[in-house]
Amino acid sequence: MKALVYTNPNEVQLHDRPDPVLADGEVVLRIDAAGICGSDMHAYHGHDPRRKPGLVLGHEFAATVAQSATDRWRVGQRVTGNPLITCGHCEFCLQGRDNLCSNRTMVGMQRPGAFAQAMSIPGSCLIALPDSLSATAAALTEPAATALHAINLSMKSLVRPLPECRVLVLGGGAIGMLAALLLRHYGVDQLDVAEVHEGRRASLREHARCTTFDPRQTPAPESAFDYVIDAVGSVVTRKTAIAAVKPGGVVMHIGLQDWDSEIDMRRLTLAEITLLGTYTYSMADLKATVAALDRGVFGNLSWVLRRPLSQGAQAFDDLHNGRTASAKVVLEPEHA
Description:
Helix 4 (141-155) packs across helix 9 (283-295). The chain is built from ten helices and 18 strands. A hairpin with a 2-residue loop joins strand 1 (2-8) and strand 2 (11-16). The chain has helices at 38-44, 91-94, 135-138, 141-155, 174-185, 198-208, 235-244, 265-270, 283-295, 312-320; strands at 2-8, 11-16, 26-35, 55-56, 60-68, 78-81, 84-85, 105-106, 118-122, 126-128, 166-170, 190-194, 211-213, 225-230, 245-253, 274-277, 305-308, 329-332.
């Protein structure tokens, strides 16, 4: 099969790889569409020691079951899935918080990912797709579920209902865009998004109907927002988030661009700011997101850029050099 392989920092190449071998309890998928995630770009830049050269990246996918060694799935079914492979028996799995599984592994990290014509995965990770949902839309399930999980978690900590809040999203990439679209669906009218890429700002204004600004030119106002989502996770955006939120407000930290940083703990304490971290989603979130995508909650998704897998190296390079305004590039393997 053809697979896009991370070979060196800032390099991916299309290689021939052996077809996946069907294991007990697993399925082999024919990949129909796979999205490039910010974490894939992080690995591409050589900044993720967990993802080493030689790995097939990709964990946002829509697929068709090609082989099955489980009674739960039959050949020909359309699916997406949870790239987190969980144990099912640790305290977090038993609580239904499988995203925090103590023994989790991940597709596109510890095992080959979805930037290929085929991929294997445990059947327990899969979610059926409705016939009405396109493969391109279904490939957005994973990042959209990340936004849904984070926003739903935040609402438990907000003093006032979400539609009453003034909200700031830092970063207009896929998570920022999907968060903005979901916030608008939830009734948020006062929505600002900080994004450095001019094309992405235009796309956000068009599709999420929000106010945008370039934080390099116009710093976010201090103590102005009830709720701030950091969809970047850099040293700068973490400091910006703490400064921009009102006393008593909520900061939701999603992005993981920088591993270390300092935050203003004095302001966090004296202003009674709630700082939340979030990691991925639960299976319940993924199922809810498939239904939301099918209902059109995230809009028509016309901002998503589709490319064949054979052009994957160029797609990574374009994202690296800021040559595309799209917040999401979806790669589509060619099948005979």
